[in-house]
Amino acid sequence: MRLRTWQADKKYADQFKPQLALIFQECKGFADVVEWAGDDEDRHGIDLIGETFGCRCACRVRGYYALCRFRDVTVRWKRPTGASTEWDKLPDHVVDWYLWAWEEYGVIKAWVFCDVDKMISEGIFQNPDRWRQVINADGTKGLAIPLSWLSAHGCIIKASGVARFIPKGNVDVYQPALILR
Q1: pTM of the prediction?
Q2: Which alpha helices (DSSP H) does 15-158 contain, by range?
Q3: Can you give the pLDDT at residue 6?
Q4: How far apart are CA 25 and CA 34, in angstroms?
């Protein structure tokens, strides 16, 4: 088993920075200036900082096939190294928002923007056993939270490209004009 480091995860995600920044601005308003977190903040789960409003956002990018097949978001739960994970950090209000995105050939095709405080108040982090466990080839483990659950509990603030994967009427779905192609 080849362990993927924090640096390798960051390198993969960093290629999507321009697209993620545009999505964040769509969700939070163009008046907000997007600043990428420094390495120390990044290690604590903060990826984007909206300077105008002081919002902190975590981002996660997966392959589009995962959305089509599993219809969920994943939160990293365990690393073989014992390093703390998103599951450990999110309940401590490290970030205000979580942006999950799914890419295909380097282009983000779908995304959901979630309110972390709402996720906490809805009890998402209270019992890890309620969620499907995902064991990755690199030894990391995640917990899969269905999009339908996030939608039904009002955790999704905005979304794009996921309408066919969740029940209608539970999320503000629109098509952003600024995703880079």
Answers
A1: 0.80
A2: 17-28, 39-43, 64-70, 86-89, 116-121, 147-152
A3: 65
A4: 7
